Amino acid sequence: MLTPDEHRSYRKELERLRTIRDRDLPELLREARTFVSSDATEEIIQIRDDRAVVDTRIAQLVDLLERAEVVADDAPASVVSLGREIEVEYLRSGRVVTYRVAGVPAHGETRTVSGGSPLGAALLGRSIGDVIDAELPGGRVEQLRVLDVRPHGS
To answer: What tens digit of pLDDT does each residue of 59-92 get?
Structure first.
């Protein structure tokens, strides 16, 4: 499941990568072929490696976008749904953490949980004040209280 914003973001990334694959990398390859032999070889190898990385990510994005269900955010403002930021308190330690619930966590984005993960699934549909039991990595179960729900970026 993806929010409309996530779907647009992944579609935009796919278009950008296709441009790199179809225009930028071939241009770099043509330029590299004009280099001195040893430099050209190294450059061509690097460009081919870059192409493999880009092709892999394009395939991942195509698969994701083909399989994704885009869900509208029609839940009340105080209910946890995809695309929202959730502030929770871990009752055992008193630690307060803010997470963003996403259809698919973005690479390198911290404090994002997938709606399909154990924590994300436990949070979805909950409201401010609800206490939930969430199974965390390693089989540990934590009780969390939902303190706040807000649109992403607020």
So the answer is: 989 988 888 877 766 667 778 888 888 999 999 9
Task: Please indicate, yes or no, whether residues 11 and 54 belong to a single structural domain of this protein.
Answer: yes
Please, is 102 exposed, middle or buried when counting C-beta atoms within 10 Å of its C-beta (0-12, 13-18, 19+)? buried
Name the packing angle between helices 4-19 and 37-67 (round to 10°).
150
Whether 78 maps to a domain, the answer reads: no
The pTM of this model reads 0.59
Task: Please check whether residue 30 lies inside any domain of the structure.
Answer: yes
* Per-residue pLDDT tens digits for 120-133: 889 988 999 999 99
Q: Which two tokens stand for residue 75?
A: 């839940």
The two three-digit tokens of residue 38, written as one number: 């040893």
Angle at 38 between CA 37 and CA 43, to 5 degrees: 95
30 CB-contact burial (10 Å; exposed 0-12 / middle 13-18 / buried 19+): exposed
HEC secondary structure over 71-138: CCCCCCCCECCCCEEEEEEECCCCCEEEEEEECCCCCCCCCEEECCCHHHHHHCCCECCCEEEEECHH
